[in-house]
Specification:
Elements: E1 9-18, E2 21-31, E3 36-40, H1 47-55, E4 62-67, E5 70-71, H2 77-85, E6 87-90, H3 102-112, H4 118-131, H5 147-159, E7 165-169, H6 177-194, E8 197-201, H7 205-211, E9 214-219, E10 222-227, H8 229-233, H9 238-244
Parallel strand pairs: 3-8, 3-9, 6-7, 7-8
Antiparallel strand pairs: 1-2, 1-4, 4-5, 9-10
Helix pairs in contact: 3-4, 3-5, 4-5
Bound molecules: adenosine-5'-triphosphate (ATP) and magnesium ion (MG).
Residues 47-48, 92, 169 line the site of magnesium ion.
Length: 261
């Protein structure tokens, strides 16, 4: 790939404060077209907030987020919607609508953006439900399915519009190993066959190593590491090492009391 190519996603010096709490302190990272970037970091360090900036739902206090070179942060709502239309987003909470069946939840983006109806809509929704092994649950309501099934419905919904960009917030948490693997294979296939660009926030190191082209590590609102799977395994950064090896005793990572003001 050409080094000069415009990145699919770019965060430039993104700062965000909520109330008195500085959450992002100048986040910089870019994702190349067709790349899978895994975003790692301890709880509460701004991973989900970073994804929300990319969708344009959260606007930075300072800095910018670009999609294919175009600012989503500082554009009018119409442009934001257009850019968001190219993304499939799976929020951490799942965000299923309780009064709609699994089928209708997955069909929602197609209906909302008037992208398909009738037999075509049914074909697309049935295909995505099949990929995530959800056909037996298609007529159930979210309250009547397991946590892992909700997660899978969130993934199926993110895929319905055949997006160029996929953002997943902890897709494999709560999935059993078989379904986690289905997800990993899906990400690899979407990248290989359709050239999809993805950001995957996860704590699942096995999944990260399997799907990532590169891994970024966010800590106290800054990206403190970015590199390949080999790079991260060999990093001398103590915080990153401690996190990826799952050690609970370490010099820094639990020292959240020492928050910078
Ligand atoms: N809209 C908001 N208003 C106020 N504070 C917020 C808002 N959104 C996020 N925060 C705070 O920002 C911090 C970072 O949140 P974020 O959800 O990005 O963490 P995370 O890295 O995704 O953590 P986890 O791994 O637990 O999901 C948290 O302390 C959270 O409470
Ligand atoms: Mg989160």
């Amino acid at each position: 790939m050409s080094e000069n190519q415009v990145p699919a996603i770019e965060l430039k010096n993104v700062h965000k404060t909520f109330g008195h709490r500085k959450i992002l302190r100048g986040v910089n990272f870019s994702v190349r077209k067709g790349e899978t970037m895994v975003l790692l970091g301890p709880s509460g360090t701004g991973k989900s907030v970073s994804l929300k900036h990319i969708t344009g739902l959260v606007v930075p206090d300072i800095g910018d987020c670009l999609i294919n070179g175009q600012s989503i942060s500082h554009s009018k709502e119409k442009i934001k919607k257009q850019l968001r239309g190219r993304m499939g987003v799976m929020f951490q909470s799942g965000a299923l609508i309780n009064w709609l069946t699994v089928y209708e939840n997955v069909a929602l983006p197609l209906r909302e953006h008037k992208l398909a109806k009738g037999k075509e809509l049914d074909r697309i929704v049935t295909e995505k439900l099949g990929w995530l092994d959800l056909l037996p649950a298609k007529d159930n309501f979210p309250a009547d399915i397991s946590g892992g099934m909700k997660k899978r419905a969130g993934i199926a919904r993110a895929l319905t519009t055949n997006p160029e960009i996929l953002l997943y917030d902890e897709p494999t948490s709560g999935l059993d190993p078989v379904m986690s693997n289905v997800f990993n294979e899906l990400i690899l296939r979407l990248k290989k066959e359709l050239g999809v660009t993805s950001i995957v926030v996860t704590h699942d190191m096995e999944s990260a190593y399997m799907i990532a082209d590169r891994i970024s590590f966010i800590y106290e609102g800054e990206i403190i590491f970015c590199g390949t799977v080999t790079d991260i395994k060999n990093t001398s950064n103590q915080v990153v090492q401690q996190f990826i090896n799952g050690r609970t005793h370490g010099p820094m990572i639990l020292d959240h009391s020492k928050k910078k003001k």
